[in-house]
Amino acid sequence: MISGEGESQGQVGELTAESAGAVLREACEASGLDSSGAELVRLGSHAVYRLGPAPVIVRIARDPGSLEEMERAVRVSRWLESEDFPATRVLGGVPQPSVVGGRVVTFWESAQEREEYATVEELADLLRRLHWLEEPETLGLPYFDPVAKLWKGLRALDGVAEDDREFLEERAGKLAKEYDRLDFVLPFGLIHGDANIGNVLRHRDGHAIMIDLDDFTLAPREWDLIQTAMFYDRFGWHTRSEYEAFVYHYGFDLMNWPGYPVLADLRELMMVVWLGQQVSASTKSAEEFARRVTTLRTIGSRRDWRPF
Fold this sequence. Notes:
Helix content is 42%, strand content 13%. The chain is α+β, with helices and mostly antiparallel strands. It has a 5-stranded antiparallel beta sheet with strand order 1-2-3-5-4, sandwiched between helices. A two-stranded antiparallel sheet has the order 6-9. A two-stranded antiparallel ribbon has the order 7-8.
């Protein structure tokens, strides 16, 4: 079901709990699902809802221009299912994706009734298995260009002070040059693109599954290891024993690679810029964005950064 197809990004407006709720109700009604009692799980790049009466997750994309990306995510999910790979599954019997009120909506099977994260060891096992798969050309996976993605995010900054914008742009330009000089050592190929412990959930039958398939691309595999390394090394979100277990299960320690600091700086900047796109709509995001920019300016510790 496609409605609101002609609306431009500027006409759609900000994604809030209220606007997302209206889209949820219309999308569920058109798909024959009951939205009463739906729980808003998170509001970030997507508004994510868990339906009350049925084991279904509904994702409403913040970016109105993400239709092609979400079509690809649906293809990836169906391909992973054909490979018997443990990942989130699209809901059957419902057109995927749909556009409602200018927003891209997808429906997924719920892993379980509550959110339970798996372990870093299971994340490593899933990544190792994923990286052995050979993706078909029919998936239409793009090549990952982190610099282009970073500049797109910088252009989307909203409500950010001009001196902060200039500082971030200058840092992006410097890191772009350093990134071009990196010598990657792992094979180039399929990556999850946002591989971290927050995207590996415990299924109701006990096994771990990957979720959030939007960022599947072709890239150096180091990109799928960088967040776990950073979360341990820079932010303290993982313990030493957890990181060592991750390295043991995957079979490679990214922190021993000479390019690690540059890749970490670039991924870190992408995290800051992503928050900067939400400062005008969220006080919590604005406070965290300010904290992170100050840290970058002063070369301070990242240990007080808060997960989002």
